[in-house]
Amino acid sequence: MDAPREEQDLITELCSRLGLDPVIAQLLVRRGLAGAMEADAYINPSLAMLHSPFLMEGMADAVVRLDRAVVAGERIGIFADSDLDGLSALAVIERLLDTIGARADRVRRYPVENDDYGVNMRSVEDFSSEKVSLLVTLDSGIRDIAEVRRARELGMDVLVCDHHEPGDALPDAIIINPKVKTCPYPLRELAGVGVAFNLCCALLY
Questions:
Q1: Residue 115 confidence (pLDDT)
Q2: Which residues contact 73 (CB under 8 A, 6 or more apart)?
Q3: Domain count, the chain
Q4: Within this chain, do residues 43 and 111 fall inside the same structural domain, yes or no?
Q5: What pTM does this model have?
Q6: Are the C-beta atoms of residues 172 and 104 closer than 8 Å to each other?
Q7: Same domain (yes/no): 87, 181
Q8: How many Cβ atoms are within 10 Å of 191's Cβ, its own excluded?
Q9: Is the domain of 95 the same as that of 21?
Q10: Same domain, residue pair 179 and 159
Q11: Which of 36, 86, 119, 189 has the highest local Cβ count within 10 Å?
């Protein structure tokens, strides 16, 4: 293995203390994970290592509103992006809502083939006609100012659960998105499903 002497010593230590293959140990060292405890935490993560979901701005309000919807038996609408991230976020949220006893007749909408990215007016009108009182957007919504405004005009509360970069203005909604400038959550690069997972963790606290 072609490595400087100091690096080789660190690799040898990781191999000895953690029983790692030298190639894996070298990769960890070159990622800056030279200490045995740090390397072990990296390759054997636990939920206890996660940041509190309540560090994410808007999370407490999101939990209160979703709890209220579940207790009152409100009809929840979910708009999820149709890519892998959006559908993964949908699966996570659906499992959570089933676990906490939300109404099973939720209304789901997705972009179809010729739709632009994001929430669309057609879906907003559909949610209204289906008597949705709380609309949750997954992997979308942060730039959909007009669509969220229309949902609010139709009497819906809106929870935006997104990870995309916001525009200059934010929608009139409860927002959980680590890329909002005022959000103190330390991991800004979460995928949409990561934001949804944090919402689930917060609801189960």
A1: 76
A2: 103
A3: 2
A4: no
A5: 0.84
A6: no
A7: yes
A8: 15
A9: no
A10: yes
A11: 119
